[in-house]
Amino acid sequence: MEQLEFFDLPNPCKGICESNAHGLCKGCFRKREERQYWQQLTPAQQYMVLRLCKIREIKYLRAQMPISVKDIEDDKQTSLFAEDD
Questions:
Q1: What is the b/e burial string over 27-46, where b = at least 16 CB atoms within 10 angstroms of the residue's CB?
Q2: In 10 A of CB 49, how many CB atoms?
């Protein structure tokens, strides 16, 4: 069963409306179909699109980071119980 929304979910459009090489909007990270049919989507579908846009934005921003910053983020934390040799 779908949860009822008390308020309409906001349209994520940021007014940039230009597609990148992957076909995603450079402003809101929606696919063409997601932009085109936003008003016809159910609230649950709109919520899912918003979640996907956030994931796409995070991936994009991580790809833009300098390599040294990525390496620091991906570096595994050492164990507190590791023995120093």
A1: bbbbbeebbeebeeeeeeeb
A2: 22
Q: What is the C-alpha to C-alpha distance for residues 55 and 50, in angstroms, rounded to an integer?
A: 9
Q: Burial of 78 by CB count in 10 Å (0-12 exposed, 13-18 middle, 19+ buried)?
A: exposed
Query: Has residue 33 got a pLDDT over 90?
Result: yes
Residues 6+ apart with CB under 8 A from 43: 2, 4, 5, 8, 9
Helix (H, G, I), strand (E, B) or coil at 4: coil
Q: Are 22 and 30 in contact (CB under 8 A)?
A: no
Average pLDDT of the chain is 83
